[in-house]
Amino acid sequence: MSERTGLWRHADFKRLWAAQVVSAFGSRITRTALPIIAITTLDQPESIIGVLTAMQLAPGVVLAMFAGGLVDRGDKRRILIGADLLRAAVVASLTLTWALGILSMAHVIVVGAIVGAASALFQITDTAYLPQLIDKGQLAEGNAKLESTEAVAEITGPATAGLLVATIGAPLAVVVDALSYLWSALWLGKIETRAAPAAPVVPRKRLRGEDLRVGLRTVFGHPYVRWIVISHMVWSICGGFFMSLYSLFCLRELALSKAMFGVIIAVGGVGSLAGALLSRWMVSTLGLGRTLVIASALSLTCAVFIPLAAGPLAVIVAFLMAHQLLSDGFAVAFVIQAVTLRQTVLPKDLLGRANAAIHVCTSSLLPISALIAGFLAEAIGIRAAMWVGISIGFLPPLLLLPLWGLRALPLEASSSDVDLNPPG
């Protein structure tokens, strides 16, 4: 089976891809529409936008504390389908309440919270599911293909969202997302591979904290994965600022139209697609460790284009598009290799718990920094608050320097290769 066509001959991978390609497109519509509903339809201040962003993230962190073991011991395909069906129902409720004339900011926040939690569960499960579906040697190809799908969705989704919101309104546009989750659930249901749960059943009382502790020991007990996660934790602080302030900055500070806002975000999809295509080339040219360091450094540094955007509309759009193109591209190149590394070196029967622990460590910082960013923007201005978040972004690449000399993916690891009982 050639590298060029390998996974396109894998029937179950194609079903997984078919599920995600439409769902990824629809998700961009809701991601774009929720802040637009809050900012334009409901006219909420900066601090409330920060609360909305935080509530989209915090429930997923809480869920991740308990979800890792359930994912390892459960039927991953059914978990993915359940998360899709829940998201479809909740997103559709926005349109229903809007049609009834009772849409409120409280409802928008609740929808954001439930969708965020279900999406966190989906992400944790999906990353653990792929190594069960395909061979270890195909993981880099599989992750690249799925990230390419995400990139195409990033190109088409936000631009479509901007046009839909401008034409029919944000509350009606999110119906497309609800339908995309149903599509995803349908194709996931068609997957034929039935992998047995990898982890043994344990007493219920151990589920309260032992699964998370095992995940944390797995992650921080590995000499490569620990530095990626520590770096990602600091990166998440920058991400919280971006998630809270970017829509505000574009729509309120720069007064861009909703359609233009969607087009600018779509340029990030072009960058993401380029990053997905170039990621493996960067590793073959620079080595794995240098790719991780350099890609993260370039992605975070290019964020300076956001607060530098000022002056004529053409200049503003050029700076914002440069950020989307370069930052998203290098971020995807980093993510593909970082995820493939941990899928390769961590034991398969611990991946669910490891993914949950990583989600807790990284995503727990997102809502905190998003809240801080919202209140800071009210105090010192949106542009100044953006500079604060960006300045923090110079640290994560330095934390990855211990991986600089890593040339390629290590050999597959087993549980004995991970220090599950570190000193102290």
Description:
- The structure is a single chain.
- With about 425 residues, this protein is an all-alpha fold.
- It has one domain: MFS general substrate transporter like domains (Growth Hormone, Chain: A), CATH 1.20.1250.
- It is built from 17 helices and no strands.
- It starts with 10 loop residues before the first helix and ends in a 25-residue tail after the last helix.
Question: Tags for this entry?
Answer:
0% strand; mainly alpha; 77% helix; Growth Hormone, Chain: A
The number of domains is: 1
Largest sheet descriptor: none
Please indicate the percent range of residues in DSSP E strands (runs of 2 or more). Answer: under 5%
Q: Which structural category fits the helices and strands?
A: mainly alpha
Chain-averaged pLDDT: 81
What's the gyration radius in Å?
21 Å
Look up the CATH topology. Answer: Growth Hormone, Chain: A
Q: Give helix and strand order, one letter per element, not per position.
A: HHHHHHHHHHHHHHHHH
The CATH superfamily is known as MFS general substrate transporter like domains
CATH architecture label name: Up-down Bundle
Give the number of DSSP strands: 0
Span between termini: 48 Å
